[in-house]
Design goal:
Blueprint: H1 2-29, H2 36-46, H3 52-64, H4 68-81, H5 88-104, H6 108-120, E1 136-140, H7 154-167, H8 182-187, E2 191-207, E3 210-223, E4 239-249, H9 253-286
Parallel strand pairs: 1-2
Antiparallel strand pairs: 2-3, 3-4
Amino acid sequence: MRVLAVLAACWMLCARTASADTVDTGIRQLEPRSSYKVRLAAALSLSKTKEARAVIALAGTLRNDVDPTIRRVCVLALEKMLDARTAEDAKALGLGALEKAAGSDIDPKVRETATRALKSLAGLRRTKKRSDAPAVFVNIDATTDPTKKLPSDGGARLTQIVKRSVERTGYATSWPGGLPTAAELTSNRSRAFIVASTVKKIQISKVGAQTQIACTIVLRIAPWTGKDGGERWEANKAASASGSAKATTGNRPTDIQGGVRDCVEAVAEDLTSRQVVPFLKRLATAGS
């Protein structure tokens, strides 16, 4: 029995040494000077272990590798490797790399895969409850202008109008430290919504010494699950409102720009106060 025990101990030690050698080799092969095939094979190999240094190496590759396929493989590997037993430093680096990929990777497939991975790992993302977190948070999204006819400052001005109108309800439009994640909203028991403005139409017609301007604005409101989750279009919990207006002004370029501003801002003010805010209040009250 003593001989068997010694043999077993020797085998376990040898196995650990072989595993360590495999991880070391994989980490070295992830370096940028390695070929695409070598880096890809290394990422796949490291995904089979849960060692902290393998997690750290893959997180670094996800942040820095130039090839989107390898970055996507790193995302899938980290999703598989990270769990409650992962060392805290490695876990933080892994989750941080996934958050960065979900938010700013230039490849849409990498962003999409990272977003899904973060959702599946949401239970690992510890967040402390903030004493200054609002009970209801409204994310006022930047105005989009597919017409390309707004003045250069028009989008920002329209967004501010919507923001001020929502703030008058007492709801917060800013979150301490920047936009919250889904985990932060959950840990603080905060309800969140998004309000987005779109300039649907701007029509400019010159008639004699005057210019007639017609505009249409659409405002969309929906539940929002954090910067890593986005909006949810749900029946009875999401809606859009549109409004139109007309303005008459002079023919000078500055007159026309001012008329466009007046038109879209009047519609945005009216839509927000008469339709968006009441709907938002109903949603927020229903969940309280």
